[in-house]
Design goal:
- By secondary structure, the chain is mainly alpha-helical.
- 52% of the residues lie in helices and 4% in strands.
- It has a two-stranded antiparallel ribbon.
- The longest helix is centred in the middle third of the chain and has 15 residues.
- The protein is elongated, with a radius of gyration of 16 Å.
- The protein starts with a helix and ends in a 22-residue tail after the last helix.
């Protein structure tokens, strides 16, 4: 699918789609003419990214989720603690003793 169709399907502007691609979060195939060919997987990936960004996760946390290095529960627990005045945390970090913040599970 073309970027125009991807824009329509995801509601994201072309600049955001290209940005996520430059950041390595989206990897479309290339056609013979070197045009990008976006797939249904790319649509799902962008929908996940949109949701995670709405949850205030930064790009590094999203990257770690995609790679399976961080669980969703751990990423969200870190965001919740930071939002409660627990101080800033590095992306995806969780304070010791947080229940349910073990590695694994909940991967993108």
């Amino acid at each position: 699918m073309t970027i125009k169709e991807l824009e329509r399907r995801t509601g994201l502007p072309r600049t955001s789609i290209r940005f996520y691609e430059q950041e390595g979060l989206l990897t479309p195939e290339r056609r013979e003419n070197n045009y990008r060919d976006y797939s249904e997987d790319n649509v799902r990936t962008l929908e996940k990214i949109k949701l995670l960004r709405r949850l205030s996760l930064d790009l590094e946390a999203i990257r770690r989720l995609q790679a399976g290095e961080l669980s969703l529960s751990r990423a969200l627990a870190g965001q919740a603690l930071a939002g409660l005045g627990g101080g800033p945390l590095r992306p995806g970090a969780v304070r010791p003793g947080v229940p349910g913040a073990e590695p694994g599970g909940d991967h993108l």
